[in-house]
Design a protein that fits this description.
11% of the residues lie in helices and 57% in strands. It is mainly beta.
């Protein structure tokens, strides 16, 4: 009896559609990736092309949630406005290629460039 009661509680918790009151967020797509963003947040995304610091940028919102209701787009719900901050470099990676028994090794370094963006309005 206890196992059945526990299963029904878990099932009812999973099936609820109400969201907890949280800050509004949106899911945007850029550079082949999706990012969950909130207003005032600064994120690093793939390079966006030629922009100057302070330029306004718009992203398509695939999903929005205001804390009470969620909207999922087919394909988009609306626009997310952002400000271009500048270009940043990511963490440095060291790539080592090694062949055993042939005195062969090669070391390479890589540092990805990102665009830093601040989300203004969802």
């Amino acid at each position: 009896m206890i196992a059945k009661y526990t299963d029904s509680c878990i099932l009812s918790a999973i099936m609820t559609t109400e969201t907890i009151n949280t800050a509004p967020f949106a899911v945007i797509a850029t550079g082949g990736k999706q990012y969950m963003v909130r207003e005032g947040e600064t994120i690093l995304v793939e390079l966006l092309g030629d922009h100057e610091a302070g330029d306004k940028i718009e992203f398509d919102a695939l999903m929005t949630d205001d804390g009470k209701t969620s909207k999922i787009g087919t394909p988009i719900v609306g626009k997310v406005q952002a400000t271009y901050v500048g270009e940043k470099k990511g963490k440095k990676l060291t790539i080592i290629r090694y062949k055993a028994k042939s005195n062969r090794d090669r070391r390479l370094g890589h540092r990805q460039h990102y665009a830093q963006v601040t989300i203004d309005k969802i």
